Amino acid sequence: MTAPGHRDLSVRFHGVRGSIPSPAPANMRYGGNTSCVEVRCGDQLLILDAGSGLRLLGEELLREAGSRPIEATLLLSHTHWDHIQGLPFFAPGYSERNRVRILSAHGRGARMQRALANQMSPMHFPVGLEQMRGLAPVAELDGGATTLHNLVLRTLELNHPGGCSGFRIEADGKSLGYLPDHEPYRTVAGGGSQAAGLAPQELLEFVHGLDLLILDTQYTAEEYTHRFGWGHGCLPDSVQLAIEAGVRRLVLFHHDPAHDDERIDTMVETARALARGSNLLVDAAIENETLVLMPANPLQTPILSARSPSGPKAVTA
Predict the structure, then answer these.
(1) Does position 278 have pLDDT exceeding 80, yes or no?
(2) Among 11, 187, 271, 291, which is least packed by CB within 10 angstroms?
(3) How confident is the model at residue 8, as a pLDDT?
(4) DSSP H or E segment with residue 58
């Protein structure tokens, strides 16, 4: 039972792929939609990114709300297509009775607004962004910490072509990190380099002690040697970062569209072998899976569990 005044922090995956949707039969156990993650804390709804998984989330929200207006905050990491392509198909956005605010990292609001309008311009899409009257114009998070009701949000610039923001979200002593597109810091934006596999201190501090880290791990070590500079994560580096930062549970995210379920299974097995001897738990993101951070009492470390759409299911933590 949750202690009085404390709320569960839940995370549900609606899109887990990177680059492009991949709705192939061999991919269906992990899922084929691009990045979209639902975060709930009490009655507050936060949506991380607007990939193709946003469409089905929108339909669920309409069924759940019935005649009531929908209130949500959409947090966008960057403007690449696989992170915004679901927005034109987000049904709640077309009703002016709903209130969906859109937030970007500090200094990126105008660029984000242009990108959202551009993808719905007549050259690309038949319906303009102005028809989505349930959406507020893009606003910006503070440069430091931003408080949204029960949530505290922080951002960090990640190593990704064109830029990408990582988010740290905290509530009632629980914490999760969302780093959707990030390449290991073998090279850094603007030139320069550092020793292979070493994460900058700022990144280590940003993810330090997280209960749950959702991290771009698109490539195996072998694949990464041929995709250097493409802006995506490498399996050994993801595990090393999580261990060095004292993360409790790592969830591999932004799965390559060419990776079928069996390939991702193998990556999870490899990651767990790399983490052997540490306290790190490793899984891969699965569409429709929900992870719940539940403190037994205010003084205890959060407990991680997962539930399927049919009901709660305990997971070893």
Answers:
(1) yes
(2) 187
(3) 87
(4) helix 54-65
How large is the average pLDDT for residues 256-278? 98
Query: Are residues 108 and 139 in contact, defined by beta-carbon separation less than 8 angstroms?
Result: no
Distance, in Å, from the CA atom of 151 to the CA atom of 176, rounded to the nearest integer, reads 11
Mean pLDDT of 23-35: 97
Q: Work out the average pLDDT over 155-173.
A: 95
Across 88-97, average pLDDT: 98
Q: Which domain holds residue 173?
A: 9-306
How many structural domains compose the chain? 1
Could you tell me the CA-to-CA distances from 168 to 8, 88, 154, 240 in Å, in that order?
Answer: 16, 27, 5, 19
Q: Give the per-residue pLDDT at 184.
A: 86
> How many angstroms separate the CA atoms of 103 and 129, rounded?
16
In a domain, 196, yes or no: yes
Of 137, 161, 151, whose CA–CA distance to 76 is shortest? 137
Return the SS3 of 272: helix
Per-residue pLDDT tens for 193-217? 444 445 689 999 999 999 999 999 9
Q: What pTM did the predictor assign?
A: 0.90
Average pLDDT over residues 97-122: 97
* Residue found by looking up tokens 């899976």 in the block: 289
C-alpha to C-alpha distance for 240 and 248, rounded to whole angstroms: 13
Classify residue 63 by its DSSP letter.
H
Query: What's the rounded Cα separation, in Å, for the pair 140 and 62?
Result: 26
Residues with Cβ < 8 Å from 210, sequence gap 6 or more? 168, 175, 176, 177, 245, 247, 248
Sheet holding 99-104, edge to edge: 135-140, 99-104, 71-75, 44-48, 36-41, 9-15, 290-294, 303-308, 311-313
The token pair that represents 11 in the structure block: 């995370």
Residue 172 sits in a domain whose CATH number is 3.60.15.10
